[in-house]
Amino acid sequence: MSLLVASSLLLAGYVLPPTPVRPAAPAASRSSEPIMKDFPKPSQLENTDNYRESSALSRKMASMAWKTIEAGKKQKVAIIGGGLSGLSCAKYLSDAGHEPLVLEARDVLGGKVSAWQDEDGDWIETGLHIFFGAYPNMMNMFAELGIEDRLQWKVHKMIFAMQELPGEFTTFDFIPGIPAPFNFGLAILLNQKMLTLGEKIQTAPPLLPMLVEGQSFIDAQDELSVLQFMRKYGMPERINEEVFISMAKALDFIDPDKLSMTVVLTAMNRFLNEDDGLQMAFLDGNQPDRLCAPMKAHIEARGGEVRTNAPVKQFLLNEDGSVKGLQMRDGSVIEADTYVSAMPVDILKRMVPEAWQTMPYFRQFDELEGIPVINIHMWFDRKLQNVDHLCFSRSPLLSVYADMSTTCKEYYDEEKSMLELVFAPCSPLAGGNINWIAKSDEEIIDATMGELARLFPLEIANDPRYPATSKQGPQGQAKLRKYAVVKVPRSVYAAIPGRNKYRPSQETPIPNLVLAGDWTSQKYLGSMEGAILGGKLAAEVVADKALGQPTKPLKEIRPEIVAAAKAHVVKPPPLVKGEGAIAFGAGAVLSDAGRKLLLESDEVQFDTSQDKGKFATPKEERELAGAA
Predict the structure, then answer these.
(1) Cα angle at 417 between 413 and 423, to 5 degrees?
(2) Considering the chain, what percentage of its residues have pLDDT values greater than 90?
(3) Which tens digit of pLDDT belongs to each residue from 65-121?
(4) Is 77 helix (H, G, I), strand (E, B) or coil?
(5) How far apart are CA 404 and CA 421, in angstroms?
(6) Which terminus of the chain has fewer Cβ atoms in its 10 Å neighbourhood, N or C?
(7) Cβ atoms 337, 76 nearer than 8 A
(8) Mean local confidence (pLDDT), 151-162
(9) DSSP output for 174-202
(10) What is the average per-residue pLDDT within 415-439?
(11) Dihedral sign (CA 279, 284, 290, 294)
(12) Helical (H) or strand (E) element with 227
């Protein structure tokens, strides 16, 4: 290690153990011969406090089974929603000796990780989902289901497209054997492409309280956006352009001027405290078969049931306000001992009965809403040069992308590329200039092709179908064969400043109702990990109550919410309108009929009054601001 690097770490407040001299890693380049190479399960993945905490909760749930049966306290639990959180809740309830019944409205499980096949047999995924080493509850569940071999671990690095050098990449390389947080600090310092040494040193001090004070400091930053935090603590503006824009859009599909700093600090705290926290894995195939099916099999092998095509219409209540049953859309009624809502917040809002509407607990939901996001699949007529990893595009329109024909075994193709890209931010709520949910698929693809022409300047062809490629030279030959634009108008909850305090506890004031979901109060973000943990915590509430054991108290409700509940005018719940994925909070390729239904049920998705007319890169935005 060079004296310069060691000195920089000391200036940043780090003390490194002695390490051998290593050459700086070269900038990443796309392989001309794409070869899928998976790496072993990270060696320190299970050696973290968070993993041990998750394992302890799993053991607690399993140990309850004999107590539950011996005491005759087995509960029939109706769970509304077959996404990851609902399935997680059912999995752990079945482990604890209970009888869960999962009611999924659609014909496919997974919710926001669902996938389906098109007329050609190609899989369409709701989102591009990456599994991190810092996902302890997800990793525990994979181990408990015996499906760890379905995770394709990639080399421990982060790959960024170069904004000012089209077609080039740079990396943060994590050197094996160096513990956290030093591996992260060294990865940043060894990169010579993105930030100057002075900018790197300026970045460290504002983050030190996160390491020293932990979660209390992190939670206290929820009122600040990422940009506000940066400016408060004197961080260089280029940190935003070089790092935080990519992080913010990858974490919650939101630009840094709109995203709560608590979200970024929560993620960084995990990554900085766990050696393998940032190592990434891809699932080896489609989510319904490779992830949801094993969860379903586990539940049903223990006496539970998972039903699809089972949409719930409304809650039926007893006189005391507790849940009497669930009226289904087909007119039938399902009764259980306990009920769990694993629905997204935007869907549950539409179903809150009149008797609950003046309770402060339920008025917290008004402060939460799903963020729009678009997931795009693009099949090309030839193989693009690529990397076997997730790439941070650092584009004004795209968040992250991967060539799934290289990274994923089921989709592997040596001759043609299939890119999966996250299009974000795609609305003014998320910091974007344009409401892309309201745009046609053709407009979205044209804009995306323009961005790909920047990322692949020597490969994307000048295609008359897509005006954004008109400046491409003759060397580019790759043309788009087909595409799928999956719109998710209400994705994970929008983690804008000040929202975290309104996330409700899993336990509710209704004695036989419990909430699951990534949007409920838990220490992980709106993510797959948050969904698994939210479901697991909901199962713990049910199991503890069944045995008469104490549960965690309800989360304190803010005074302004109490006041809003008193002033609330009770109305009949609007209920869920229509059929299909979007009606129930997931994503779909919208047909004309689907667009019409979305307009009727969620017209704000077509509001273009805040559009600024174009999208701009951070550099262009600075120039425009300077001109003004």
Answers:
(1) 135
(2) 68
(3) 999 999 999 999 999 999 999 999 999 999 999 999 999 999 999 999 999 999 999
(4) strand
(5) 10
(6) C
(7) yes
(8) 94
(9) --TTPPTTHHHHHHHHH--SS--HHHHHH
(10) 91
(11) negative
(12) helix 226-232
Res. 538: pLDDT tops 50: yes
* Token pair of 14 as six digits: 């780090």
pTM above 0.85, yes or no: yes
Cis peptide before 425 (omega within 30 of 0): yes
Residues 6+ apart with CB under 8 A from 48: 136, 273, 274, 277
**Ramachandran sector of residue 97 (left: φ over 0; alpha: ψ -120 to 50; beta: rest):** left
Listed in sequence order, the residues at least 6 apart from 515 whose beta carbon sits closer than 8 Å to its beta carbon are: 340, 341, 342, 348, 504, 505, 506, 508, 534, 538
- Which pLDDT score is estimated for 273? 86
Task: Map tokens 């940066």 to a residue.
Answer: 230
Contact 586, 486 (CB under 8 A): no
Nearest to 535 by CA among 87, 140, 54: 87
Q: In what side-by-side order are the strands of the sheet with 76-80?
A: 305-307, 99-103, 76-80, 338-341, 513-515
pLDDT digits (tens, 9 = 90+) for 264-273: 998 888 888 8
| Nearest partner of 235 among 262, 209, 203, judged by Cα | 203
Residue 504 per-residue DSSP state: P
Partner residues linked to 468 by β-bridges? none
Q: What is the CA radius of gyration of the chain?
A: 24
617 compared with 280, residue with greater pLDDT:
280
Residue type, 283: L
**Tokens standing for residue 39:** 């790496």
Q: Letter for the amino acid at 568? A: H
Query: Which H helix or E strand runs over 379?
Result: strand 373-380
Q: How far apart are CA 150 and CA 408, in angstroms?
A: 10
Q: Which of 333, 210, 322 is nearest to 273 (CA)?
A: 210
Tokens of 238: 């280029």
Q: Which two tokens stand for residue 10?
A: 């000391």
